[in-house]
Specification:
The structure is a homodimer.
Chain A lengths: L3 E6 L12 H11 L3 E6 L6 H6 L7 E4 L2 E4 L1 H9 L10 H31 L6 H21 L11 H15 L7 H11 L2 H19 L1
Parallel strand pairs in A: 1-2
Antiparallel strand pairs in A: 1-3, 3-4
Helix pairs in contact in A: 1-3, 1-8, 4-5, 4-6, 5-7, 6-7
Chain lengths: ~210, ~210
């Protein structure tokens, strides 16, 4: 088997630690039991080499033999095609997982990212746009609450879609955005209690702690 | 071959016409030359049946035999696996297209949607959060400008990734957000000049015009 290499930053500020998107990939790799190693690129000086792997200067990317992939959603889908611990192989099960994977990123995170950015800046000024964003997130969470109050995982079994959805909702929860959405909150607790998440989280924290100590 | 059925709203207000997300799917179906028919669900009264197909009460969804898929990204990936006009079959080419498909939705639209929503509400109040969103979009467009000034399409040939990226940038362009990004602007013009987009756009407009006349 080819060595899988996950590349992330060498260091990040305190605030995003535990939330840098390599955690989504670490989590998937742990769930699938795929061996991998982690490499680093500088956070402060992003050179042309970095941009050749990740055109927005972000992380993570994954190297799998002669294939290099950026975008955590694309990386997780790539891993899911290698492990039925992440996605079933039958066409129907597969398509259910894939639609929920996109829903996590494009229907829920699309609505939750503005919320997180407003929280991050400490901006509390009510404007018409801000009001629309709040309604947007609330509507999406209400729909997710209806879905998650009826099932343990998004599809028949835990999948890569749950990794993304739980990680997206985890960031909303960090800023107390899941108050009033008990099924969403319980889902995040259930997902993040999995040993694979616990290890992924500890590994990311240790990675950035090591940078501080260096 | 199974009949493909694309479901969209029966009617929408003037503002989103030409931009409802079924256009992304129509465009993909036209590029692939796949036969399909269009069905409608009420825009005003979204019932439990609607939510059973699309848990956020949105459109579109695609029915392909006994498989039903929501999320335009997931639908387009599904179609791309059926047509090499949308995605090459070799692993490397495939993974390049998939990463750019996610980049369109998760790196670019994630930054452009707030911009569009602010424009949509006519909100021009400068707040710290608003400033961060403007910087976020500008940074992403600068990176896309660098990418698109060097190539005709995102990967070796036109693909499903270009459908998504061009449609995302088209909405930025609608609100004059591509001023200062000539390569992005030219890319949108190039993509939307394709006969498949022209037909998809005309078909969507005709669909909603017919609802007005009914």
């Amino acid at each position: 088997m080819t060595d899988l290499i996950l590349t992330t930053f060498d260091w990040v500020p305190e605030m995003p630690r535990g939330y840098v998107r390599d955690i989504r990939v670490r989590w998937g790799l742990e769930e699938a039991g795929l061996p991998y190693r982690v490499e680093s690129v500088p956070f402060r000086n992003r050179d042309a080499g970095h941009f050749s792997y990740q055109p927005f200067g972000q992380v993570p990317w994954l190297t799998d033999g002669d294939i290099s992939i950026f975008e955590s959603g694309a990386i997780l889908l790539h891993l899911a095609e290698r492990s039925d611990a992440l996605m079933p192989v039958d066409p129907r099960g597969r398509s259910e997982v894939i639609q929920w994977l996109f829903a996590a990123l494009n229907s829920v995170e699309m609505a939750s990212l503005p919320f997180s950015l407003f929280k991050f800046t400490g901006d509390t000024i009510e404007t018409p746009g801000r009001k629309l964003f709040d309604q947007f997130l609330k509507a999406r969470l209400q729909h997710m609450e209806a879905v998650l109050s009826r099932r343990e995982w998004l599809t028949g079994a835990f999948s890569v879609a749950d990794i993304l959805m739980a990680d997206v909702l985890r960031l909303v929860d960090r800023f107390d955005g899941l108050t009033g959405f008990p099924a969403c909150h319980a889902y995040v607790a259930r997902a993040t209690a999995r040993p694979s998440f616990v290890k992924a989280y500890a590994d990311q924290m240790a990675h950035f702690d090591a940078a501080d100590a260096a």
